[in-house]
Amino acid sequence: MKSKFASLLLLSFLFISCHGQQFKAVHTIDAKSFSEKLKTNENPQLLDVRTPEEYSTEHIGDAKNVNWNADDFVAKTVTYDKSKPVFVYCKVGGRSAQAADKLAELGFKEIYNLDGGIMKWKAQGNANAESSAKIIGMCDQEYGELVKSSDKVMIDFNAKWCAPCQKMKPYILKLETEMAAKIKIVSLDADENKTIVEQLKLDGLPTIIVYEKGKEVWRNVGYISEEDLKKHL
Question: Closest Cα to residue 31, out of 204, 205, 220, 208?
């Protein structure tokens, strides 16, 4: 009996120890710290874990594209040195957090995850994010006309891959119809309207902005319940 108890105790210790090491290996840091860490590493191992399509339109410096959602994610990490720091980022931080945990599980010793992703990186004025010069989606003039197209307008910036965005989508569509006489509600895909997202310096999704007579009066970043949203409409 004592032997079984001792074995269970040992297994629990090893489980906690293993997860403690994994936690310690991953450091989620803000854009400024991420930038500083990159500069202190010669030829840093910088991984953009978004899709190839997202990577092709913009990425940070010499980042390599290793898609977290692809079947070959683990296979591609074999080419990287587990004993050296590795830096990961995505759009807003969700996928890179999962990728960072997986890298720790695979034996990488020092992993830096960009908190807020490339949206936060660019919103805070970091310049070395290579992007396409062409206008993607709505331009600032069109956006200006949109927010002035009614006395009260709500813009919902979202994305297909954003879980909170998709959770909010059904009730936002419902409110769009129910509150049509009171407020104009428009949903914009952030990936399809990258130009205006960058000009507004949006640093997270979903982002909801309410305008009255063309002037911003309220903004929310992140998930918000239908009940709480209604209070601001």
Answer: 204
